[in-house]
Amino acid sequence: MKDRTILWVFLAFIVGFTLPVCSCVGTGLLTMAMMERMSRVSQQPAVSGDAVAILRLEGTIHSAPDEYGAIWGVTPEHTARLLKQAAANPNIKAIVVHINSSGGSVVASDRIYHLLLKFEKPVVIWMDELAASGAYYIACGGDYIFAHPSTLTGSIGVVSRFLNVSGLMDKVGVETEVIASGPSKDLGSPFREMREEERALWREIIAETYDGFVEIVAQARNLPEEKVRELADGRLYTGRQALEAGLVDELGTLRLHLHRPHLQGPHHPGHRRRDPSSSHPRLSPLVRRHRRGGH
Question: What is the pTM of this model?
Fold first, then answer.
């Protein structure tokens, strides 16, 4: 009995010592990663002579505040800071936006798209391994789109997923009680099956957002909306297939295209800058609703 007591005391000591140490180490690593990301943002290397800036947008697109999202993914705030640096440096004549992302938030994608659209210097998009869904949405804000032949892009569309664990809850004998101001206030609750009128409501939201995506692609690629809708069934395209469909302008590698004429300035014939003030901005429906004060 005494030996067992000593063993438990020893284990408690080990656990009590190890957990704080692991917590401190984890916090330290997280802090170091955030400081490294922030230093990359704040440092602007000296540039002599004409240059091209490369902006890397990698990971999930989201709108998390920088204090939470600074070490992962693509945010409008981070992108805006990079663009501000490039705009302030007179030696930077153009930017290449290096995209490697599977997509993410509709609103965040739309915000970054408009940041690129309004940028005054030439914007060339280069798609790495993946530039799908919201990442392709962002690419539409550029003047020219390059892709690797094996890039996976497209996935033009909108999707929502809802989990239903009501059957599991019934099996384990757990019930939920909801008090709401309206019958659809808990729409999407995982604890009950979605009602048909709620499915119809959500389909309207998806359709409206999808229409906005199609409009942006049609405008950016100078394609009829009917053609875009044929392409925008959610499928992925390789770089070669995207070129044939008119979704990208050219194939190749990043290094090959850094010296191409599309990066020589806004007056070059290859520069296709669209003036966002010449027509109404193609805001996504969700953003339009947000700016009208909706929720």
Answer: 0.73
